[in-house]
Structures are given as structure tokens and as C-alpha cells.
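Fold it.
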Amino acid sequence: MKAALVRLFTDQKHFMIIELQGEPWGPGSFLDMPLSEQWKTMNAEKLREAVFYARQVGFSDVYLWGAEWWYWLKISKGESALWEEAKALLSPNH
């Protein structure tokens, strides 16, 4: 909606998303939340849906927020699903 409104009143053609949510959201640090709670607000499926939606509405550049969390899950918790999903989503062939 915002991009459409800006296009209506300006010559702006290029839009990007800064900080597309890619990590859990809660009342405090994810370090203090059980993984079961973290999965409720972010998981590989939610990440994929967010990126696909951003592409569908025409954003060519999307900056994801959460890579440090994906890495922490992979290294500290042995959970690599988000890391692998992000790699797939960010690959040039995707």
C-alpha cells in the first residue's frame, strides 16, 4: 500500500524492504524463550512465506532480519532448517 501511494505522488520506481522479519518476536530476548515459543512466531515456513510475499508485491530488494538467530540455532541448538531455508531463498536460482 505504501509503495502504491508513493508511486501515485512521485516518480519513485525502486522500493526495498529493510528488516523483513526473519526471527522470533516476543516480550524479551529469544535467549530467554523456549524454542517451542520461538517457532510460533518464526520458522522456515513463515520465512519462506514472508519472502515470497515480498517478491509477489514487487520488491526487488529485501533485507532480512535474523541471520544471527538462524546461525545460533544451527550452531548451538543443532536446528539448521532456517539456515538452509535462507540459503535456498537467497540463492540466485531461486
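Strands lie at 16-21, 61-65.
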